[in-house]
Structures are given as structure tokens and as C-alpha cells.
Amino acid sequence: MTTHFNAGGSLGDPSDGLGQGGPEGGSRNGASPGQSAGSSAEAFAGPGAAFPSDPADQRLSNYGFDLPEAAIAQRPVEPRHDARLLVVQPQAGAQHRRVWDLAEALQPGDLLVVNDTRVLQARLAARRASGGAVELLVLEPQGEGRWCCLAKPAKKLRPGDWLTVEAPGQPPLALQVLALDPSTGGRLVQFPADCIDAVALEPLLLRYGAIPLPPYIHQHSASDSERYQTRYAAQPGAVAAPTAGLHLSDALLAELEARGVELARVTLHVGLGTFRPVETEDLSQLQLHSEWVEVTPALVTAVAACRARGGRVIAVGTTSVRSLEAVAALHGGQLAPHRGPVNLVIQPGYRFAVVQGLLTNFHLPKSSLLLLVSALIGRKRLLDLYGEAISEGYRFFSYGDAMWIDPAAVLESARPLR
């Protein structure tokens, strides 16, 4: 059976509140409150950017492909590093390896930049006063314990309604729906007043919530609470995992360290934008949801030191790419400390300022993440490689296999100038 995806590539229904693609397989579209999204033309005009040469790259319909439903990974492989790895060759073709072989592809002095966000147990099962079941996905704080939540079924929830959340061994938790949120289709829900941010809310979610797996994963397990987190997850706040990092086991991280590969951390909390499909056919008009990022002085120092010793800056996952590139774009192409929202469209024609290579999962058709990876190696080549991956039986999306793009395989026009 072949799965035909809609324009956003999500198997869920975003209009019903809980459709989700995941940061290594979904899309980001729309503008968040308080920050307008910059157009792709603005992104191209910024430092380290160039204009696309192929007009076909600017049409969303040219990023589609058919995927057999059997290719969508339902469970992760064990150990983590035993997932398959499609190695993009510098000139043409690919090799078929395992993620463990990344240790041979990296060089002493290279810097791996990982996203250390931690996924919240943000999915809550609740009941309305009538007894009807409802599911909430907790997304973003709005102050004084109020949180924006996606809901299913959303149409049944009205301002003033009370919900009861129950969990084994826990007292019932009463939550009130305060308002509708037209921008998201979600609901503003009152939690305890001291739940002002993700750090404060996480203890409650650990008692009542569950890990929010993407809707295309139908086989759930108690192990998901551990397996859908990276081994270095530290900063609570995401509602979907930076899934390329799921491949990095403790053993592989130790092997990389022993070989002289350094590790640095960035934080990007994957949030509301994950659930927005790309619906803009003319990609020169594409806008994306802003995202909260923290680039620390330690990360800036690590990148500078890597460059000084002749090492290569390698991003683990598209979230790390977006973090580094978006912050650099705010500072004239130079990475600098930053804490707050960022927004950047990365698609073919973009010249990277920081990132030289990428470890990534296989992404949804017509997604902003597919555009990003196409910027590194070209749209036509990427789609050819995806076709090869499908024919070779690779597993796609969050719990799937990985692709390694060595710096030598990146288009010369996309490589950082310095």
C-alpha cells in the first residue's frame, strides 16, 4: 500500500488539533504571536545567502513523493546506533551503512552540535463534565498558568468548560477552558497558577501526561518515554523529539569522544510550528512559525575553536541547523549568544553560515525540512536518494533510519564562506 500525503505531509488532521509530523519529519508554517515570519526572499538576501538558480525549486509540488505505508517506522531499532545510514557520496551515489559507522566518517577535531531539548509528557487524557473523552496536547505558556493546547475533539470544548484529568495513583486534576485560540485552532486552558513555564509544568505532566508520539506511529510502548528522548535531553520544553539525535547511543557518543570528536549543545524547543503544514505553492512567499532557541556563549566558543583548528561543524538534525543558521542570520552571519525567538526559511539557494555537514532522518514530502536538506545537496539529488532509500527498504520518519551528508557532499554554492 502506498501512502499519499497531503500538502503538509501529515497523517494527522491539523484542523482537529492533534496532527503532527515531528521535527525530523514534519513542517513549520504560520507566524507566532509577537513575531512575524520573514519571507524566503528576506532569508536569501541575508548574510551568507544566495538566490536559487532553478525556478522549479520554488514550487512546493516539486517536493512530493509516494511512500509505501510499510516504510513508516513504527518502532525504533535497538541499539540506537544500529539504524541504517544512507551515506551521501561527494560526487554521486550513496553507500548503505549503519549509524555506528558515523564514527569513521567524522574526523578528530570535528564538532557535533546536538539539540538538548527534552520532550514533555504533553499529551493529557481528560473527560468533559458530560463524561465525553477529550485529549489535550499542551503547547505554549501564556502566563499565570494559562497554556495554549491543541484539543481533540476541539469542537466540543467551549470557554467555561471544565475538564477532569485522571491518572493511576493520582488525584483528579480539574482544568478549565478559558478561551478559543483562532490562530491555532486550539484552546487556552487554565492549569495551576504556578505552572508558568515548562520547568514548572513538567512535574505535573510527569504525573498525568504521556509522550506525544506522531500520529503515524500506531504501535505504542511504555518504553517510548525513554526511547523518544535523546540520551542528552536536558532542557524541558519540546512537544516532539529532535529525532536525528535518537540514533546517538551512549556507546556511540563515547566512541566519538575517544576519537577526538567534540560535542556542543544548542536548545530549540520544538513547538507549535511542528503542526503547521506547508501550504504555499510559491515558496518565494513561504513563511514559517518562529521558534525559541538558546545559543550559549559556550557553544559560540566551541564553534569558533572548531574552525580555528580546522575542524568541521556538523549538525545533528534539522533543529540544530535551524538554531545555528537563524541565530547567525540575526548577527550578520556570525554566531553569537542568543536566547529567544528566531525565524529563518532555508531552501535551495541558501548559503549556510555555520553548518558544514548534517546527520538527519528521512522527512515528509512537501515539508519545510525537505526544503532545508535540499538546500545542502539539491532538490533533484535528494529526491533521487529518497527513491533509492525506499527501494532499499529504509525506514522513514521519527523512529526511522538516517542520512549522513558529509561536508564534501554539500553543494559548493551552499557551503559556508569561512
Structure commentary:
The protein has 418 residues and is α+β, with helices and mostly antiparallel strands. The chain folds into 2 domains: 2-119 and 225-414, QueA-like (3-Layer(aba) Sandwich), CATH 3.40.1780.10; 123-208, Beta Barrel (Thrombin, subunit H). It is built from 9 helices and 19 strands. The strands form 4 sheets. It has a 9-stranded mixed β-sheet. Strands 7-8-9-12-11-10 form a 6-stranded antiparallel barrel. It is globular, with a radius of gyration of 21 Å. The model is unreliable at 4-21 and 29-48 (pLDDT under 50).
CATH superfamily of the largest domain: QueA-like
Overall CATH class of the largest domain: Alpha Beta
What is the number of strand segments?
A: 19
Tell me the CATH topology of the largest domain: QueA-like
Total of domains: 2
Give the H and E element order: EHEEEHEEEEEEEEHHEHEEHEHEEHHE
Helical residue percent?
10-25%
- Name the strands of the widest sheet in spatial order: 4-3-19-18-16-5-14-15-17
Percentage of β-strand residues: 15-25%
Instruction: Report how far the terminal alpha carbons are from each other.
Output: 47 Å
Number of helices: 9
Class by alpha and beta content: alpha+beta
Shape: globular
Low-confidence runs (pLDDT<50, min 5 residues)?
4-21, 29-48
The radius of gyration over CA amounts to: 21 Å
Determine the mean pLDDT. 89
Architecture of the largest domain, CATH level 2? Answer: 3-Layer(aba) Sandwich
